[in-house]
């Protein structure tokens, strides 16, 4: 296959979902850690997430736009997770929260959350660390 045909949608190699143990605290009935399934996002999805995190800020009468980076990273992580279903009402209710972003921050420790972000970053092709990802979002 050469030329333009290699770029056709049906010929593109699909990025496979990957499974990772994000936390040793979530185990199956045999005591084995349950892996999380993480997927790659399209740039179209990533752009929609970025745009949803932009807020208008008024400072001395001047209105500018600012990105909420913590919200961006939370939404990025949520949209990358296939399993567990973070949008499941029963799962959210069990942690006493409403919303997938709040659920994720409630159910994971700081280190686990950082690991999830790293794995989501890896499968999405970001070779740099999360600080570089945040810098990319700023631009």
Automatic annotation (TrEMBL):
Q: Which InterPro entries match?
A: XkdN-like (IPR014986)
Q: Specify the superkingdom.
A: Bacteria
- In Swiss-Prot or TrEMBL terms, this protein is called Phage portal protein
> Which species is this UniProt entry from?
Tissierella simiarum
Q: What is the lineage of its organism?
A: Bacteria, Bacillati, Bacillota, Tissierellia, Tissierellales
